[in-house]
Amino acid sequence: ERLTGGYYLDIQPDARQLARYGLTVGDVQGTISAALGGELVTTTIEGRERFGVSVRYPRELRDDPQTIASEVLVATADGAQIPLGELATLSINRGATEIRTENALLSAYVYVDTRNSDLGEYVRLAQAAVAEAVDFPPGYYATWSGQYEYMQRAAAKMKIVIPLTLLLIFLLLYLNFRRVSESLIVMLSVPFALVGGIWLMWALDYHLSVAVAVGFIALAGVAAETGVIMLIYLDQALEKVAEARRAQGRPVSLDDLQDAIVSGAVDRVRPKMMTVVAITAGLLPIMWSTGAGSEVTRRIAAPMVGGMASSTVLTLVVIPVIYALVKRHQLARINARPTAERAGPDP
């Protein structure tokens, strides 16, 4: 914003001259207001419309300081007409093009474009540079506003929204499985699904923003959903093996556990690929959009598109591995029990 560039006519009354002629500052200001600004004297009525009529000096008597100083006359109590130039000093000075106030204080804006850099990092460096190089007089201070202020507010809200979202995901998982172990399997594997989104954000040179955070939250939900389905397939496959081994009167071995996990994971390949293709096909047009609001929608879609790739590996590889480690530990504990107790809970 240009802080200077406007031209103003400054009129400084001379207290000695005013006292000499028995005038006050109010008398001078009243004359200036009527002569230069105009004074409403009557109202004309034309049908149902009313127009105010203001009277002031003609343009040729108020278009430059010298003319104003000589032609604008201030009346005294005894009827004398004193030129304004004898009562005040007139000058043209440069100043702000407009007067802004914020929080009842005068303010001036400095606009900065950070299109090719991270907004948060830029403001952090700029704050350090301003604090080092600028010594504000008493009553002056700098406030970093605009998109940075909105980003700070959003970041404060995200500190509440993201943990609450993860807590709700864990709660829903626990209500579904009724076991903490399997709920933790999904929760611990969700960060692997975010890796693809982070890599795509880096490739597209997108910085962290509210839209990106929304995309990652949505990605975490999709990853948890596909992880739940994978665990259901694995549990069903292991349950079939456990029933067969109970019918044979022998416990489930590590080889049986591995075969059940492989069988359940293979059954999940086709549904997982269908999910990835459907979500990616729906998000790619958003990634390529260029219309109004595309800057926001692209940043929401980018984490999900990149996360679908890593989510595929997560669901088909990572979750079965974590599931195998947990179930192997549980199976070892069950097989270590006496035979009478072993027929109780399933692995």
From TrEMBL:
InterPro entries, alphabetized: AcrB_DN_DC_subdom (IPR027463), Acrflvin-R (IPR001036)
Listed Gene3D superfamilies: Multidrug efflux transporter AcrB pore domain (3.30.70.1440), Multidrug efflux transporter AcrB TolC docking domain, DN and DC subdomains (3.30.2090.10), Multidrug efflux transporter AcrB transmembrane domain (1.20.1640.10)
Keywords noted in UniProt: Membrane, Transmembrane, Transmembrane helix
One GO location term (cellular component): plasma membrane
TM region positions: 160-177, 184-204, 210-234, 273-294, 300-326
Stored PANTHER family: CATION EFFLUX SYSTEM PROTEIN CUSA, PTHR32063
Protein name: Cation transporter
Species: Lysobacter concretionis Ko07 = DSM 16239
